[in-house]
Amino acid sequence: MAIELTAIVPKHERRIRCVFSGALAASAFGTPAPAYYVFDNEDGRGPSPNAVGALIVSGANTNVELALDNDIVRGVLYRLRAIGVPGADGSASTAGSDQLFRVGSSPRVANAEPKVSDTDLLVYGRDLVWTGTDYQESAESDLGTVEGAANAEAAIRRRELGTPLAWAPNYSPQARQYVDMPVTMVASLRGRLQEQALVDDRVRAANVRLIVDDSAPEDSLFEISVTLVGGKTLQPIAIQVPLT
After folding, report:
1. What is the SS3 assignment for 48?
2. Where along the chain do its domains lie?
3. Which class would CATH give 5-102?
4. Which fold has domain 118-240?
5. Higher pLDDT, 104 or 43
6. Rounded to the nearest 5 degrees, what angle is found at the Cα of 82, between the Cα atoms of 80 and 32?
7. For 138-163, what is the mean pLDDT?
8. Residue 131: strand pairing partners
9. What pLDDT sits at residue 199?
10. Buried b (16+ CB within 10 A) or exposed e, 129-168
């Protein structure tokens, strides 16, 4: 019997939990996320986020938590297709695993104080939001911005998951160099990941650990934990090893 997507539960702006009717196979998870998971914006009021990671939920083998490369905008209509997701029993989700969802929006409050404090704005900065193809618009049709600790997190995540730039050849850990290298060489990537996190002067400390999945080595990954100046701790950044 095929497993099916039964519920979508927003966790925060860049995390969505998908609940299936049966246990999932190991290949339903990974970083980057398998191609089974497809997001689309249905009303033109926001970007269509890409799933960059499909994460295991401890103690819930019917759940997968999707990490997204763009924020989920409140009040915007999204569509998630999770077709062909493999189940532990050898079945796969069908075309029925296709759902529309909308995250409730709060009414705008006139003269409300900003969510980010002046100190956070000064320390961590503010920037425009780049979707990968264009600058993101807000729900009010202005250019979207990210500020405070979220701005620092986005910059660090781009650096760790990115590739060298023409004008900055030392940008990113250059992780693609490790494709098809011996497993013993992959461990040296840990130092590069930590070094790249510490390049950002908003970072106070960075710890990188290798999480090995003995039953499915292709699902092993590095988890990067970052603490910012001021003591704020960011969501861990996951990079799969071996890279493909």
Report:
1. coil
2. 5-102, 118-240
3. mainly beta
4. Nuclear Transport Factor 2; Chain: A, (3.10.450)
5. 43
6. 95
7. 84
8. none
9. 93
10. bebeeeebbeeeeeebebbbbbbbbbbbbebbbeeeeeee
